[in-house]
From TrEMBL:
Region (Disordered): 269-304
CDD domains documented for this protein: Mn_catalase
Binding site for Ca(2+): 56, 60, 217, 219
Keywords (A to Z) from UniProt: Calcium, Manganese, Metal-binding
Taxonomic lineage from the root: Bacteria, Pseudomonadati, Pseudomonadota, Alphaproteobacteria, Caulobacterales
InterPro entries associated with the record: Ferritin-like, Ferritin-like_SF, Mn_catalase, Mn_catalase_dom
Organism of derivation: Brevundimonas nasdae
Name of the protein in its database record: Mn-containing catalase
């Protein structure tokens, strides 16, 4: 059960309308790193979590994210409030109104389509989607994903803070950014309260491959570090040892029944290519400058 308190979690003070800035702020309203995505991610995880401590934490943070959604949505509304009135009452001259609507980004879209309201879109006008939610139902996986999500959200808030000189907007954004840090700390603690927490899941990895590092990209720029050297790693840069690492021949095969094998052979025969042929194609017949070398039709000798 939810009960709404009309007081915002953080006071929103906007110095002056700015439709372009409002559009940028939508990134944290209806974008992939935004507050709605965070709230839905943590709510759905909480509903399925079997651990009472994690469930409580996820519900707390999910609910707080909804309050953050209200804060960022209020910022968008206040930044659009002037153009909202101008649009509704046609109070400006056409040229001035057009200039205001196109002051930055997709502000004309948010003004005309949504009347200055905070729409569930990102700053480029892309609608919010549940595809932003990447929960997989394993606490070790989901908590790591949550940590990464909070980190990405903090970076977006940093970029938004750098986009405005409005002291009130900066103040509210700094609060929201800081709460991303606090949530990351909670998720880190919850992750490490699970022992063990790595690797995720129940099945163990294959010992023969758990400590190998395959140097697959070789050439100028090769760098060694703790991610691929030391007692923890067996560094493999021999190309011969990078293929068929299971000891097989490195090919793909399947056992087919007699009927399937006959059908596959018939299909292969019907669609076989003639390596000795060199037919004239539509590209040859319609070729112009820039087409490169083409096959020509020689009337007295046939096709060459």
């Amino acid at each position: 059960m939810f009960m709404h308190n009309k007081r915002l979690m953080y006071t929103v003070r906007v110095s002056e309308p700015n439709p372009g800035l409002a559009t940028l702020m939508l990134e944290q309203f209806g974008g992939p790193q935004g507050e709605l995505a965070a709230a839905m991610r943590y709510f759905t995880q909480a509903l399925a979590d079997e651990d009472p401590g994690r469930k409580d934490m996820l519900l707390d943070i999910a609910t707080e994210e909804l309050s953050h959604l209200e804060v960022i949505g209020s910022i968008v509304s206040m930044l659009n409030r002037g153009v909202k009135g101008q649009m509704a009452e046609a109070a400006m001259e056409e040229a001035d109104l057009y200039a205001s609507l196109n002051s930055g980004g997709e502000s004309h879209t948010t003004s005309i389509l949504y009347g200055g309201a905070p729409a569930l879109i990102n700053s480029a006008g892309v609608p919010w989607t549940a595809a932003y939610i990447d929960s997989i139902g394993d606490p070790a996986c989901d908590l790591r994903s949550n940590i990464a999500a909070e980190s990405r959200a903090k970076i977006v808030y940093e970029r938004l803070i750098n986009c405005t000189d409005d002291p009130g907007v900066k103040d509210a954004l700094n609060f929201l950014m800081t709460r991303e840090v606090a949530h990351q700390k909670s998720f880190e603690k919850a992750l490490y309260a699970m022992e063990p927490n790595f690797p995720a899941g129940k099945l163990v990895g294959l010992p023969a491959f758990a400590d190998k590092y395959y140097d697959m990209s070789q050439g100028e720029g090769d760098v060694r570090g703790p991610w691929n050297e030391g007692e923890q790693w067996e560094f493999i840069n021999d190309r011969e040892q990078q293929g068929a690492v299971d000891g097989g021949d490195g090919s793909a095969s399947v056992s087919l029944g007699e009927r399937d094998a006959a059908a596959v052979q018939a299909f292969a025969a019907r669609t076989a290519s003639d390596p000795d042929g060199n037919p004239v194609t539509g590209a040859d017949l319609g070729a112009g400058p820039g087409a490169g070398t083409t096959t020509e039709l020689i009337e007295d000798e046939g096709v060459s």
